[in-house]
């Protein structure tokens, strides 16, 4: 059976422009949520899985964090690169995550993974070589 995540990603790929145009901008609670995350992390490098249009990550550097933006949808990666930020094409299910990181952010990504899929994607065996 096809992985449902692949269907979701194919939809993002086909409709990235529409997503950017019509999806709601972050509501008033999102900056507060991100601010609380930052307070927990402190300073350093943060991995964002699923940067999409980059709205969350745009907020974080104002706190002195270095955000490693990643997404598995090539259309989002190309759109983000076109407006400036560096971003890696990365599928969290299969690609090395790199690191070490002080923290991670994955907004509306993890809900698509089963429990075992989450462990496969983010378990200790999936870390890349330490740098
Ligand atoms: C709702 S969007 C995230 C929005 C983004 N955080 C923002 O600030 O606008 C979810 C993103 O997760 C990405 N995604 C879904 N599954 C993924 C995976 N396995 N690995 C990497 N990215 C994934 C999608 O391509 C999509 O861009």
UniProtKB/TrEMBL annotation:
Question: Organism's domain of life?
Answer: Bacteria
Q: What InterPro entries does this protein's entry cite? A: Methyltransf_11, SAM-dependent_MTases_sf
Residue ranges of every copy of the Methyltransferase type domain listed in the record: 47-113
Pfam families per the UniProt record, alphabetical: Methyltransf_11 (PF08241)
Task: Spell out the protein name for this chain.
Answer: Methyltransferase type 11 domain-containing protein
Species the sequence originates in: Kineosporia mesophila
């Amino acid at each position: 059976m096809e992985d449902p995540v692949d269907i979701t990603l194919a939809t993002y790929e086909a409709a990235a422009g529409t997503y950017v145009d019509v999806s709601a901008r972050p509501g008033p609670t999102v900056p507060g949520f991100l601010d609380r995350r930052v307070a927990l992390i402190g300073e350093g490098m943060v991995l964002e899985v699923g940067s999409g249009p980059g709205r969350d990550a745009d907020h974080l550097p104002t706190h002195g964090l270095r955000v490693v933006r990643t997404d598995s949808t090539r259309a989002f990666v190309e759109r983000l690169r076109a407006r400036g930020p560096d971003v890696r094409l990365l599928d969290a299910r299969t690609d090395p995550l790199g690191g070490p990181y002080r923290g991670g952010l994955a907004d509306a990504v993890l809900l698509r993974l089963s429990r075992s899929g989450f462990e496969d994607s983010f378990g200790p065996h999936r870390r890349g070589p330490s740098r």
